[in-house]
Design goal:
Keywords: DNA-binding. This is MmcQ/YjbR family DNA-binding protein. This protein is of the alpha+beta class. It has one domain: Aspartate Aminotransferase, domain 1 (Alpha-Beta Complex). Helix content is 32%, strand content 23%. Strand 1 (28-32) and strand 2 form a beta hairpin. The longest helix is centred in the C-terminal third of the chain and has 14 residues, at 109-122. The protein is globular, with a radius of gyration of 15 Å.
């Protein structure tokens, strides 16, 4: 059974997420369960999801679902801006509502950092080394 599409292709926030996520080495996009997800060998970011629990209609259509760095996870769980996404929370995933796509870049820096951390937790070590080498070359 296929899932209905649960995102707007024209959403400016999705375009910003794509720009960030697809810049990582080996990153690609696919639609899974009706939502975009970004992956290498494993998914590192979903766009949109729902909240854990009995919340009828507790959808977060403009959110990212990420795997935080294990060192940062306890602090992020205390931050009220984060939520436990349905189905993924037992594996350490968290959700974060993103700003509208047309807000200034400064408001997107935290989003980029969260996606970067999730990429580093899920991507193969060779791709993380490639990412780090790019950063050194850019300095």
């Amino acid at each position: 059974m296929s899932h209905p599409i649960m995102f707007d292709e024209a959403d400016a926030a999705l375009q910003r997420i794509r720009e960030i996520a697809l810049a990582f080495p080996g990153a690609a996009e696919r639609i899974s369960h009706g939502r975009p997800n970004f992956f290498t060998t494993k998914t590192f970011c979903y766009f949109g999801g729902s909240e854990r629990g009995d919340h009828v209609g507790a959808r977060h259509d403009r959110a990212i679902l990420i795997r935080p760095d294990p060192v940062d996870e306890p602090a992020l769980r205390q931050d009220p801006r984060f939520f436990e996404p349905a189905y993924l929370w037992p594996a350490g995933w968290l959700g974060f509502d993103v700003p509208a796509g047309d807000v200034p870049d400064a408001d997107w820096s935290e989003v980029a950092e969260l996606i970067d951390a999730s990429y580093r937790v899920t991507a193969p070590k060779t791709l993380v080394r490639e990412l780090d080498a790019r950063a050194v070359e850019g300095d």
